[in-house]
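Follow-up to my earlier ticket, as requested here are the two runs.
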Amino acid sequence: MVIMVIMVSMDNLLRSMHGVRGRRIVVGAVLALATASTAQAGGDCVAPPTCPSDLDGSGSVGTSDLSILLAAWGPTTTGCGDLDGDGNVGPIDLAILLRTWGPCPDECPITLLVDTNRDNVVNGDDEAGKDKWTRDRGAFFLVNCDDDDKNGKADAAEYDRDEHVVIIDDVINTGDTSDITPLVVSAVPDLTNHEVYLKIGSLDQIRAIHVFEKIAEGTAKFWGGPTETDVEFDITPYLSETDPTTLGIEGLKYRLQAGGVAGFTADMLFDGFVQFEIECRDAKTGAVLGSDDVLLKVAPWIALPNTLDAEQVFAKTMSALIPAFDAAAGWIVVPTPNDKFLEDLESGLGAGQPKTFATDTQWAQDDVEIGFSRTPRSEVRIAAYTRHHGSGEDIVAKIGDALWRRALLMGATPVAPNVGIYRNPMSAGANSGDYGGNIELVPPTATDPLGRICVGNTISAKKKQFFASQEVQPPFEVNTSWLAVGHVDEVVTFWKGAPMTVIIASPRLAYETLGFGGGFAAPPPFKPRGPSDAPPDWATFFSIGEIGHGIAEGGSPNTIVDLDANFLSPPIPWRFVRIYDGTGAGQIAHIVAIPDSHTLALDTVWDSFAMTDPIQAIPADNAAAAELNSIAYATDVGPTWHRGVVPDRSSSYVVVEDTHWWEAPSSPLAGLVFPLNKTPATITRKEFDPTVAGSRGERMKTLNIEAQKKVDLIRVGIKVVSGAATTFLEVPVLYTGKLDATDKIVDRTAVAWTPGAANILVANGKLFVAAQKGPRFRPVGGVETKPFDDVIKTALGAGNVIFVEDFDHYHVLSGEVHCGTNVLRKTYPFLWWEKQPAGVPDLP
């Protein structure tokens, strides 16, 4: 009987066999199959020559092959199952099959290699762990978004303002080879009888890359891209029977996982990993005769800290319309360039700095955040950009991009090599919270060796998720929703990393400096100034040139008289006089003539509010930023003193050579707004006095006490990340905005009323701080004193500070020096992958 022969033979064979696991299981399977074999004719027989026991051609010897062999038991003419070639399928054939149980040896041995050990060489040392990715081992590929061919476009892909791919460059450009990641395929024997296919883990993966047959200029991709529909590709024509073949990979997009956030386009989503499997197949049957696989991850976009040196600083050349009085034409506006702003920057930067542009908005910081991306093979600085309100909408494919960035960072004459671009996602209709001024980096710490991105909570979920998806600089939020613009850089500047030093805005210090301290919570170590240090009542903000002061004796509807004054000696061209106390306080007038030494003749008088009482509806967002800075705007303008009052002996005044101007509100309360839509900005310390109950000065301080509470919470949030030893250096800033019925700041209304001293450009060891514009005064026979300037230089070190003139072109529009500049920095001097923070997941 066949069954008895099988049982006896199996017993003997299994006693002598080694390496076959689960003998009892096999015996049971054999008995069952043997019984079944009497009732079936058997299965299909393929028997590849180098794995004859693989009777079904599956690439593995298993129960299906055993079933075929038992079905053919006995004398045979077909050869199916006759593994020893004696013309009979019997115990010896069964022994051969059981001895080769499991995967067949490769008939077509093939190897796929990438730079697993991250040494920029692909060789046998990369074999171990190549199919996994960990923090310590695993290959990277680069998003190829620089412009090596200098055509003004990214070398791989670009996205339009709606976050769809609109530009595809699928050729390796001149100078582009180092940005292409090698994928090495071993030599393949007998390509006549074999086919080799490269397979990808998913369509999402292949749509995030291009694959090239070789890494050489002019080579076009053969596979991949946003419209790819194939998950495998026949690469047999590209291979050699004698030598390894190096294919190339370029990335089209950075890692971006939705993470529960809605609104992303499929064009931008990508989990960051690419898994390749290579298969060598029998050309006739398609049977897989050998295979291998590797795993790669896209190199992340990484932000850079202020602690790294600046290579380039960018700023716009522009003009602002400044009122001027012409004897013949009357009031006119004169285009005034921002030359002083640029000169002040140049004074602290290297030769040829700053690099200027004339297109787009002056808010260079908001268009892009320049970081970098690096593999062991290549590095690119990446200007990650958002569709900004100043971006050009009509360039190629409605990209909504900053033209200055293309002109200076890309194209025929870029300011530096290997600088690329990549669009950051943002929510539809997202406001200023998504702009670059709301993206700052805490310098590296032991816990976060690449730093952590600090964002204001005005950022969109989509934008924040992009940073989170990079994994190596986890973003954290602080509350900036009380600010009209809503940016982190309005409140803090991260200056040093060792020791960790943060410059932070301080309304508390501003009031102490003015001599109006008290009422603020003061976290140590805070050293208030004493009342004896306070500037005089007539110290001015926003005046230009010389300052004088006195008490009026009287006047007429269009004059002011002071018998103790001599307005002609010394011969100073006084242009404005402000009544800051007593009868007529709050008015400022233009001086058209000085008829005698005691008299000033006036031709235009503004009746202005001295402070920001919540008198006017503030937009929910920054739709009309000019209204927010109009602290001293005119409710009426005319040739004479207003409200039926003429200055008398109770009227204290200051005279100034000139004044800065506020933008007038777009919706005045009443009366004629100055035809030039500007309001003189000069104001005095006295008008801040918070000790008078119900005064605007009291309201101003109430608002700033609330602002200080917000700033102190930001300090706490940063310290959690930056470490307990972090030093915070306070700089004086006064805020204005709108208070609600409970004296809390209405969201998205607060702005820096004094030039924001915490909004700082850090470049090459220098701190470029907005010129403070007061308080300032010059005692008779004394030198000019600027308390805010002095406090800032004391806090930050006089040798570190360069004051930059930014009032007319930036401050009046709710921005400062940092907002008006952008920096291309050197990158980290270490290999970032050796400094990854804990928490970056491994993939088995």
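Run two:
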Amino acid sequence: MLQQEERRGYDNKSVLGGVDRLLKNVIDRIPLSSPIRGSILALPARGYASLTPSERAEWIRSVGAGSTTRARTSTRRPARTSPTKPAGSLRIAPGESGGLATPIERLSIRGTTAEKIKKIRRNVGPISTVYDLVTHYPFRHIDYGHLAKIATLQPGDRTTLARVHTVDAPFRGNRGRPVRAVLTDGFGRIDAVWFNQSWVANQLKPGKEFVFSGKVGYFNGRLQFENPEYEPATEETLEDIERGRLIPVYPSTAGLPQRTLRRAVGLALTGYVDLVPELLPEWIRSGLNLEAQQEAISHYHYPHDADDYTRAEKRLSFDEFLVKQLVVLARRRLWQSGPSAPRLVADPAAATGFVASLPFQLTNAQRRALDQILADISAPVPMSRLLQGDVGSGKTVVATAALVAALSSGHQAVLMAPTEILAEQHFRTVSSLLGAADDEGPIREAKSSFLERPIRIAHLTGGQKASEKKAVRAAVANAEVDIVVGTHALIEESVEFERLGLAIIDEQHRFGVVQRDLLKKKGQSPHLLVMTATPIPRTLSLTVYGDLDNSVIDELPPGRRPIETRYVSPHDRPRAYNFVREQVQQGRQAFVICPLVEESEAIEAKAAVQEHRRLSSEVFPDLRLSLLHGRMKPAEKDHVMRSFRAGENDILVSTSVIEVGIDIPNATVMMIEGADRFGLSQLHQFRGRVGRGADQSYCLLLADDPSDEARERLDLVVRIQDGFKLAEEDLRIRGEGEYYGVRQSGLADFRVARLTDEDLLAEARRIAVKLLDENPNLDGEEFRELRHQVSEFAVSRNILLAFH
């Protein structure tokens, strides 16, 4: 380590915490007779840190670690060094140093510890090399300079130094029971609880002092730590507290204490951070005032102060933004540099005739979006456009106008939806808009007034009869069908198009990049339009949909009333049920959404069945209730929706399967059970299933015991009708990692960057555009590492780039 200090120019940063920490840790293991021990003791009272660079160089040579004695000392076993006191199991093994691809076992991490480290879940793959450890970034830091006394703790505080007073451990065989403890510091007491962590009871011994760090909240009217992390209050920890250090907290896994993981990361940093190659050319770093990569990584793990952390965060965030912007922009250029797309120039009479045939007028926002789409598809460059619109804004009408433009130019078009219910809804809507009869077959014919020939529209889903699917596939392959509306069944190999010119994907976030590309390959460079009724914050659209141009329908059709939204407390539940009954007695219909128990369609279905049974027998025995959930067969779902649409049932009890696309103008009440378990975007989508007729509609949010955060979310839905504003709030509250639908893309899985940092993202996009304009393949030595990371990221997401 002293040799590394020499290579760094004696800056006292070769060891996290400084060389004096290293010396303090090793001096007790140096024989009394050793001259090295004498050299250490001869340092000034303030240690190595107080020396000038030249004095440090002379002192290092005096202990035999300088460049003139390196050959003599290279065979010695190096002292164990880490940013915290060694536990005995973590050290660098002699003669086993290597590159960044060195396995973590080479750090002499014990087998069980190494296996636990490898189990840590990350969006960039498991931790297996020292580079993985170096770039395993903390998600927060414990500020040892701001420890609060228990008597002064408030909800939102995080850290205190306390002694364990009592521990209540689960009995053997009842490991699901939480571990509870009472903590004291002489100034007060506080409860602490750990869920699903039975081993905690064996580590917390009454009378022992620990630093506890976690979320302080209320339970039964008393303050309580919830699943806090804890560190033994060792001499070293107390020194960290005295100096007010920022200590990293890492994503971990069961049975792997933070102190153990911290030492492992510290060993990797100490021995290997200097090997991390620089990602950015100097002209980019200096232009944006970004610090060097190695320095940023070190400071992000162990900042000396808040400014250190801010500078490191800015640099690493920019790197993440830049890599992902290069991926989406390069992908867009690859798609548009391929074979020419068909020029879909709409017959003016057809386009005008279709709009004139509508029973309503298009809004200005709809016309603007349609003009942008028609301009794109009339060019030989393949369109790649995102059409955003709030619930009920009329995206389907705009999409249908684009479909008419495609078929009037002699080409076929396809509209793909993520669920069979939504595909059925689109099939019905498109058929109706084009004037086709509402019959039962999978292929309908519309004899419109704006085209000289009939329009044939087909429906294709996985749940159809084999004979129906075969007939549709044959008609599509022979160009006997103009428009096909369906689900994933459209991208199966057996589906072939004669002359596909336009592909439209609804609710794009439900599909992956691979599915989008498979649909594109059904034709030769067809134009692509993707739609979403989930409004997307601007920063997210630049990241997840950065390869698409953006059209926004930000205006609702005239005459649509705001949906009156109310929070219903437990004691108001009977009044809510009476209100639903009153609406039904007036000839209206209602939805009841069952709570999201967990990400399991089977469990959701069971909850819906139970709720349907309870409401039918106990609450609304005099009304007609139907049931809908994702485990039902397609024919059953279709029958339920047709019956409800026809008014044969008063209340539809459903899971989140009706989240998008369901259009029942007579439904005026949306009652959401367990509303606190849904995100803002989902609640807004549920609300959008009503308010589609001329009558006033209502959304009732039921939650028995919402947390403070959940209540804040519900209050936002009550207060805000604008889906775009709610989307921004959703991103602010939950973060991009949990934002609805983001995980499917993988393009917004950031480890450091935050999508709320709009200015830095804009800078990264500007630099990415400049780089690809000037150097499309990122050729040259200065871009070698950047090109490598872009390619690696793209390959991990199955994204094809031109310079792979």
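The only thing I checked on run two: Confidence is low (pLDDT under 50) at residues 68-97, 737-745. Let me know what else you need.
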